[in-house]
Amino acid sequence: MSPSGVAMLAGMAAGYGFFAYVAGRFLYPSGKSNRAWMFVTAAAEFAEGRSMVFRTPAGAIVNITRRASTGQAEDFIALSAVCPHLGCRVHWEGQNNRYYCPCHDGIFDPSGKATGGPPGQAGQSLSSYPLEIRSGMLFIEVEAGRVAAASGIIEESAGPEGPGHDPCLQPAVYRNPGRNRVC
Ligand code: FES
Predict the structure, then answer these.
(1) Residue 91 and residue 162: Cα distance in Å, rounded?
(2) Which own/partner contact pairs does 167-173 have at CB distance under 8 Å and 24+ positions apart?
(3) How far does residue 167's CA lie from ligand 1's centre (Å)?
(4) Cβ neighbours of residue 122 under 8 Å, at least 6 residues apart?
(5) How far is the CA of 125 from the centre of ligand 1 (A)?
């Protein structure tokens, strides 16, 4: 990597680290026991159709996606990024207008309702988190029992990864021959 590329990466790491520091401390009570509103980002900087991955203070991973541009909190949706089937990472596929779990081809519609794969068969939809906009800033209501140092935005879009549920060990009906991975 060139020296300028290294410098750019170092600058980005410093910037995101500082942002996580600020965001991790931008909490205020929600009025519910052990819950708090946490700053996500300026709504204007979150383009329609984009999705970002957010880590709550308790360590939960959440996909936050912008679906419209009316300026209301309803433009956004925050859904657990943990597949209710066996816990793999779910990510947003804007081109297919769906959330997808690569482990066993779990499919969820834009509201988080399971529509395909094992979650669809079992009716296991993605859990959601409340969102609100205050003065142009997007906030998410999260559990506030403890604060993780790395809470806040962790990446702008999630990759097709899972925590260890090997699709090659699953029945063939759950495998997808079009996937990059070769079983
Ligand atoms: S873990 Fe998501 S479909 Fe199986």
Answers:
(1) 10
(2) 167/102, 167/103, 167/104, 170/103, 170/104
(3) 9
(4) 84, 85, 114
(5) 11
> Rounded to whole angstroms, how far apart are CA atoms 129 and 63?
10
Q: Which two tokens stand for residue 105?
A: 């081809």
- Rounded Cα gap, residues 160 and 90, in angstroms: 7
Residues framing ligand 1 (Cβ under 6 A): 83, 85-88, 101, 103-104, 106, 117-119, 165
H-helix or E-strand spanning residue 121:
helix 117-122
- Could you give the angle at the alpha carbon of 51 between the alpha carbons of 46 and 164, nearest 5°? 150
Per-residue pLDDT of the chain (183 residues; tens, 9 = 90+): 444 544 444 444 444 444 444 444 456 666 667 788 889 999 999 999 899 999 888 889 999 999 999 999 999 999 999 999 999 999 999 889 999 999 999 999 999 999 999 999 999 999 999 999 999 999 999 886 655 545 676 665 544 444 444 444 343 433 444 443 433
Domains delineated in the chain: 3-163 (2.102.10.10)
